[in-house]
């Protein structure tokens, strides 16, 4: 017990919130491989509270002095932590013995720890610099809830980095739904703090928001994320700007906001937030950059009609598999190849909810095919010897129809072709009009295919 509370005293004495939060970690460390078991065996249920109270409130070697209320609050926190440590050790022992493991008791114990910590801030005057403790309990509250719902016996390292956790097949998530409610309590605890900003719990707000986003995505309750964004807007004048928070908090927040806009089909706003997340994300965090690109690439396809380069995707083999076949077909105007690539990646596209967005890329493939027809038409005969060549702008519908039939490997009649051409003009992917009575398309001489240089 002494080594454990030595770390507590060092962290509390120096006012280091992150070091203090590590005393509440449910994991052993490389330097202390038996950290949890040593702590749990150091006392028992009958004497734990008395032991903790002595070390927190009455130990003369402490370099700090806590009030009775604050000290008792930390005693309650560490007693709850001691109890849940026993549940964690039991679950891990069962896992090693290949026995059936239930993480429900671990989740319930960790929830009690969370409740004691929340009470500490509301009733026992815990100081704002200790807010990283909320990060720790919130992070593992979510992890243990997932393990309890899934009945999994994996290590807790499975869900520790930022990820969108889209889970379209989620059905029973009783503990995770409860965890979302507890995280929302922590969110309100931070948001409603009226202390001056330099001493405010508001500095913990974006870490908790990011945990809520991850949880709502896992529950397929992404619409609830909008409530969080609205709450931030209400308190915006009383909060530090996002740029004042740690970079990791900024990147994760911008990523999730970008995905939320993406799912609402607001691709301009989505692209803005995802681009900012991409620029701020550390260059070595490949997994996070890959997740950002998963949504940023389809955004670029629709907003700027640009395709990812091989150089961009070279570090991301999974994204190469997903996007390169589609990109090649779009570039060539290969409609049947595009359809085949879309079907091949359908499972992953649907899982990431980018299928419908990528499906719109077929319009870009069709535009590129029609552009090839336009270029193949050559130039009109010059009326004067030194005149600048002008491309043929009156193209028979039948020529476009032949190209579309070949590209899609389906025979199309003139009415269907005209419908497709009218749709392209309506979407500003072509500039011109259809002269039905003459069976031609009259294209603009000043940029028949906007944005392509033709």
From TrEMBL:
Cited InterPro entries: Csn12-like, PCI_dom, WH-like_DNA-bd_sf
Top-rank taxon: Eukaryota
GO molecular function: double-stranded DNA binding; RNA binding
Domain PCI: 251-448
Gene3D superfamilies: Winged helix-like DNA-binding domain superfamily/Winged helix DNA-binding domain
Family: Belongs to the CSN12 family.
Name of the protein in its database record: Protein CSN12 homolog
Species per Swiss-Prot/TrEMBL record: Oidiodendron maius (strain Zn)
Organism taxonomic ancestry: Eukaryota, Fungi, Dikarya, Ascomycota, Pezizomycotina
């Amino acid at each position: 017990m002494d080594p454990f509370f030595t770390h507590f005293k060092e962290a509390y004495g120096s006012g280091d919130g992150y070091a203090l939060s590590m005393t509440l970690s449910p994991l052993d460390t490389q330097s202390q491989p038996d950290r949890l078991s040593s702590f749990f065996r150091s006392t028992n249920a009958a004497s734990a509270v008395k032991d903790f109270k002595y070390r927190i409130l009455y130990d003369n070697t402490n370099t700090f002095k806590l009030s009775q209320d604050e000290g008792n609050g930390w005693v309650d926190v560490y007693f709850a932590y001691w109890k849940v440590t026993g549940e964690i050790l039991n679950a891990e022992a069962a896992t090693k013995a290949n026995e059936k493991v239930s993480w429900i008791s671990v989740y319930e114990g960790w929830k009690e720890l969370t409740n004691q910590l929340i009470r500490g801030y509301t009733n026992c005057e815990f100081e704002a610099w200790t807010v990283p403790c909320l990060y720790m309990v919130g992070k593992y509250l979510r992890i243990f809830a997932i393990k309890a719902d899934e009945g999994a016996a994996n290590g807790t390292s499975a869900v520790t980095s930022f990820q969108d956790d889209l889970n379209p097949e989620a059905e029973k998530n009783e503990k995770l739904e409860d965890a979302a409610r507890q995280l929302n309590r922590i969110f309100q605890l931070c948001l409603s703090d009226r202390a001056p900003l330099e001493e405010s719990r508001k500095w913990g707000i974006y870490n908790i928001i990011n945990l809520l986003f991850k949880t709502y995505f896992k529950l397929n309750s992404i619409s609830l994320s909008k409530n969080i964004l609205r709450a931030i807007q209400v308190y915006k004048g009383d909060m530090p700007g996002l740029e004042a928070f740690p970079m990791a908090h900024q990147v994760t927040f911008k990523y999730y906001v970008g995905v939320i806009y993406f799912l609402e089909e607001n691709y301009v706003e989505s692209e803005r937030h995802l681009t900012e997340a991409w620029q701020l994300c550390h260059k070595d965090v490949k997994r996070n950059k890959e997740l950002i690109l998963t949504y940023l690439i389809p955004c670029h396809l629709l907003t700027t009609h640009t395709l990812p380069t091989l150089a961009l995707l070279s570090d991301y083999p999974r994204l190469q598999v997903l996007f390169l076949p589609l990109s090649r077909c779009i570039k060539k105007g290969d409609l049947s190849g595009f359809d085949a690539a879309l079907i091949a990646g359908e499972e992953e596209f649907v899982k990431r909810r980018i299928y419908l967005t990528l499906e719109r890329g077929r319009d870009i493939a069709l535009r590129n095919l029609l552009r090839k027809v336009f270029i193949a038409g050559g130039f009109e005969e010059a009326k004067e010897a030194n005149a600048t060549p002008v491309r043929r702008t009156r193209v028979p519908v039948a020529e476009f129809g032949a190209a579309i039939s070949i590209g899609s490997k389906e025979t199309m009649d003139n009415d269907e072709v005209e419908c497709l051409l009218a749709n392209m003009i309506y979407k500003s992917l072509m500039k011109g009009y259809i002269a039905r009575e003459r069976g031609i398309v009259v294209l603009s001489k000043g940029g028949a295919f906007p944005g392509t240089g033709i």
